[in-house]
Write a structure and sequence with these properties.
Length: 320
């Protein structure tokens, strides 16, 4: 009985110490948590400098065919770390911070149009010895991935699109209605409270983030406010619909049915434009499936990749 009490007391002390560390040293705690997740996923942080001097920071790990994963607007490479741990046993993952986000370069007057970002990523891929790859992207990252596939069609083996942006003919989402009605963009962050509200907007079932660590992430977004405002305008000015019409690259389109940032009806629009696509609608999930349901997202993707390898992928499939 004494041993049990001692063990319980020790456990309580450990928990209290951990909570205290998070509140006293939130920046260190946040970085330790990020490093731990990267390690569990088998990913290593690396850097590459483009010919024009801009620096890419990216994560890399795993073995197999190359799979480059592209994060969305206002996000960074670590959005894919939780799903990555299920993918590194099968593929060589390359997960960059886009120029303008995360740890990569933030040139204030650069061009951030999807075609320019895709061209930069192509330079990165070539420098890493990748001649042909599979591409995945969430939100803005999906928009850039589709653009990359159009620019370099023989070099993209497949597309994995998670709630991708760039299809503006869909019915307006809750986010788009808010922007139109209030002239305020919830995606652009000025305060820690706005960041907390954004999390509930983009995720229906978000993972728990202790408030001090959440505020560390918020402050990074706040610092990037002016640049993100410029980038958002360039994203909205770019439509992929004409670009991807008839694109035959094998494509898995995934959408959370509770996405409040981009209307789930967009999935069917893309599906009709891309003849070799299939759609998976994830129930109870918001704009970031790979963060809300990492294992399910990975399982769906592995099944998709398996069907490509077997040559059994059936075009124009919609899964409920």
């Amino acid at each position: 009985m004494r041993i049990v009490k001692f063990a319980l007391a020790a456990l309580i002390l450990i928990i209290v110490a951990a909570i205290g560390f998070v509140y006293l040293f939130p920046e260190k705690a946040t970085q330790l948590a990020i490093d731990s997740e990267r390690q569990r996923a088998g990913l290593i942080r690396k850097e590459f400098v483009l010919p024009d001097g801009m620096r890419y920071v990216y994560l890399e790990g795993g073995q197999g065919e190359p799979l480059m994963l592209l994060h969305g607007f206002g996000a960074d490479k670590d959005n894919f770390v939780r799903v990555a741990k299920f993918l590194t046993p099968h593929f060589r993952l390359i997960v960059p911070d886009h120029i303008g986000f995360g740890e990569s370069a933030h040139p204030p007057q650069a061009d951030y149009a999807p075609a320019t970002q895709a061209t930069r990523l192509h330079i990165l891929a070539q420098a890493l010895g990748v001649k042909r790859l599979h591409l995945g992207g969430n939100s803005m990252g999906g928009q850039i991935a589709m653009t990359y596939a159009v620019l370099y069609p023989t070099e993209v083996a497949s597309l994995w699109l998670l709630d991708p942006a760039g299809v503006w003919s869909a019915p307006p989402s809750e986010l788009e209605k808010t922007i139109a009605g209030t002239k305020r963009n919830p995606m652009l962050i000025k305060t820690e409270d706005e960041f907390a509200q954004l999390i509930t907007l983009v995720m229906n079932d978000p993972p728990f983030i202790p408030p001090p660590m959440r505020n560390v992430l918020a402050r990074e977004r706040i610092k990037n406010y002016d640049l993100e405002a410029r980038i958002f305008a360039q994203i909205r000015a770019d439509s992929v619909e004409a670009r991807v019409t008839g694109l035959t690259t094998p494509t898995l389109i995934v959408w959370g049915d509770q996405d409040r940032a981009l209307n789930v009806a967009t999935a069917d629009i893309l599906h009709k434009l891309m003849p070799n696509s299939r759609v998976v609608i994830m129930r109870g999930i918001g704009h970031l499936p790979m963060m809300e349901r990492p294992r399910q997202s990975a399982d769906d993707y592995l099944q998709f990749r398996g069907s490509i390898a077997r040559g059994t992928a059936s075009p124009a499939t919609r899964l409920p």
